[in-house]
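Our preliminary data section would be incomplete without showing what the modeling component actually yields. Below, a chain of 395 amino acids is followed by its predicted structure, encoded as tokens that our downstream tools consume directly.
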Amino acid sequence: MGSVVEKSALIICGDYMEDFEVMVPFQVLQAFGVRVDCVSPTKLPGQKCFTAIHVSLGFEHYSELPGHSFTLNSNFNEVEVGCYDALVIPGGRFTELFSVDDRVLSIVKAFAEAGKPIVTTCHSQLILAAAGLLKGKKCTAFASMKPVIELAGGIWWEQPGITSPFDITACLKDGNILSSIGWPAHAEILKTLFESMGARIHTTKANSVLFLCGDYVEDYEFNVPFRALQAVGCKVDAVTPSKKKGETCVTAIHDDEGAQAFSEKRGHNLVITANWGDVSVYDYDCLVVPGGRSPELLVMNGKAVTLVKEFAEKNRVIAGVGQGQWLLAAAGVLKGKRCACGDGMKVMVKIGGGELEESKGCVSDGKLVTAVGWPALPSFISHLSKLLGLSLSFE
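Predicted structure:
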């Protein structure tokens, strides 16, 4: 997914930043050829920030659950604003601390003075207010931020018709300020950011992609490619055999915390966007099976296995991440195919007739794409986009 012009972005990170609001831009920008540096003022490259899951669990206020540990890859003290084309500030409670950090504010002001895109989500607009950048600017955020924006001289804007987090789709652009209520709007956030960075989307046709999910699907492995494909113009649906359109699946966070196997924690909710009975293989160009423990659930459902077989019979693109290979093996899709997979899926790939590519995080073989797990998602999205005839260039 090479760029005509090399682009780069900076993400300012901190403990308890919103999990999706750092990882989605981090991985999706990389998938389309953008270098992404992640820094925090009191931490060094290789050190980690704790993330937080912000999701509605039926209470008056959203809940905050423990997320992943996010590894920083660059040094805050060595940041040169002139080396970057965009700034991303995730939401989360860390923004309260950084809003009174002169070093952070200095960097943000420098991006503003240079007219470079600045992405803010949920609560990170507080940093714009502290930097004095909201005067006369139209801005949106989580609703509790309205008085902050107005007291800072900004013009509050709110997306109409929101009755649940799943209705949040808008990214507001005013000059170089890009703002949104939060992570559910990532498709539009990414689309607007790409456009602001001078990107052009190239496609040979309109693509439709179906994600086959279930409860405890891997959080990143669903959401990151789902939002990435939406951002570049694909029609994307999520379906599961046992739930109707508008119902939710709970996701799972799998993270390396030093044990022999990854830990599992509750993640964000995802909304099912299509009814099982309405799904036809003829309406989609691609099927994606994310990992987590949902493939183990789906493999016990004959309808789910049959759907995968139908996509293979119609020569559609099929993609699996992590434990998704469990379902692909059961459907006979891996026979004679080169596959990438983690340790937990090696037996399934072998007995399913696949050929292990142990040194690679992601592999394409014909119309099959497989990846070891969420750390390989940038490569997975890049491979999948290529098979769908999608690319991005920057001018």
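The mean pLDDT is 94. The CA atoms of residues 325 and 345 lie 7 Å apart. Preliminary results of this kind motivate Aim 1 of the renewal.
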